[in-house]
Design goal:
- The protein has 272 residues and is mostly helical.
- The chain folds into two domains: 105 residues, Serine Threonine Protein Phosphatase 5, Tetratricopeptide repeat (Alpha Horseshoe), CATH 1.25.40; 96 residues, Serine Threonine Protein Phosphatase 5, Tetratricopeptide repeat, CATH 1.25.40.10.
- 68% of the residues lie in helices and 0% in strands.
- It has 13 helices and no strands.
- Helix 2 packs parallel to helix 4, helix 8 runs antiparallel to helix 9 and helix 9 runs antiparallel to helix 10.
Length: 272
């Protein structure tokens, strides 16, 4: 084989190798860099769940409890919410059930929240609420007793007094944003026989109702009445910082601490 034949054969081998490499490269699947269709679909479902939760909270704040419950249920049914989001939904569902006089359903929602997180708790302002606060504390006590193996003492049921019924109805109106109705019911409640704590509670939420409906003078006057009855009365930390009634309460507190000026003494009669 001469030089030219050898060179031609070599180039044919090189060309064949190049063609094979190109064919192999074409046959190799291109790796996908973006999300898969399954991931895209899951992300869309998560966004819908978050939107439903946000809508539920919005409707709750507006007092539209049926719409709020629907939003919370849709969000929870997605199965994609984080624990904190699920707790937020369950907590507000419990609130709605309690203010709607469905105590057993309220209790059930709190129990579901504790199943999600045994350390679940309410804020100080939430735990002190007269409608759902007692239900929450009972559920918490029962669960703590079960965990420690103690027997749970079930207190004998007591029929609510007329004043307690009035306060419960007033709180339902307050939570629904019907502040005119809540004021009327709270004022009727204080005319009934109430414990000192319930008296203060009714007057406090009367003041809140006045402030939230922009009747600031009446709001301040109600705080004045509270401080006259109990000089060391104070709001919960979460309540004291509220932008609507917080300034009115602080002003009433300041007035209560400021001594009234002494009346001017009458001038002594002139000596004759």
């Amino acid at each position: 084989m001469n030089y030219f034949q050898s060179t031609s054969t070599t180039w044919r081998h090189i060309l064949a190798l190049l063609v094979a490499a190109v064919l192999v490269g074409c046959a190799t699947p291109v790796q996908q860099t973006g999300p898969t269709p399954e991931e895209v679909a899951k992300q869309e479902r998560l966004e819908r769940a978050n939107n439903s939760l946000a809508e539920g909270l919005k409707q709750y704040d507006a007092g539209n409890y049926d719409a709020a419950m629907k939003g919370f249920l849709v969000a929870l049914d997605s199965g994609l919410l984080g624990v904190a989001q699920q707790l937020n939904a369950r907590k507000h569902m419990a609130f709605i059930q309690c203010v709607s006089s469905r105590e057993s359903n309220c209790k059930e929602e709190f129990e579901k929240a504790f199943l999600l997180d045994p350390k679940f708790d309410l804020s100080a302002a939430e735990a002190g609420h007269p409608t759902w606060g007692p239900v929450f504390r009972n559920v918490k006590s029962e669960l703590d007793a079960r965990r420690s193996g103690r027997s749970v003492a079930v207190p004998a049921a007591r029929a609510p007094t007329a004043g307690e019924k009035q306060i419960a109805e007033a709180m339902a109106a307050y939570d629904a944003g019907d502040y005119n109705k809540s004021v009327k019911l709270f004022q009727e409640a204080v005319k009934e026989t109430l414990s000192p704590d319930d008296q203060l509670k009714a007057r406090k939420f009367t003041a809140f109702s006045y402030c939230l409906s922009n009747r600031m003078t009446l709001c301040r006057q109600e705080f004045d009445k509270i401080l006259q009855a109990k000089a060391d009365f104070d709001l919960l930390p979460a309540e004291a910082g509220h932008p609507s009634w917080g300034p009115s309460f602080r002003a009433a507190k300041l007035r209560a601490k400021t001594p009234s000026p002494a009346p001017a003494s009458a001038p002594a009669p002139a000596k004759k």
